[in-house]
Amino acid sequence: xxxxLILVLLLGWTGFSxxxxxxxSNSNRSSQKGAGQKxxxxxxxxxxxxxxDVVIKNGKNYCSKEHAE
Length: 69
What we know:
By secondary structure, the chain is of the alpha+beta class.
């Protein structure tokens, strides 16, 4: 009787550990997908910003609206 209880607890703990490990590995993969964004330098201060955040004026890249003026 006690051996069955220990076996059930051991199987439950193993299953929980596997599920937890699977969730952590999936979250690591999804966070790495957005990490490949190109960085662009501002022509005024040489600060590098993601390409999606850059302000473009007259074909030049700026880090902010203030530097674009």
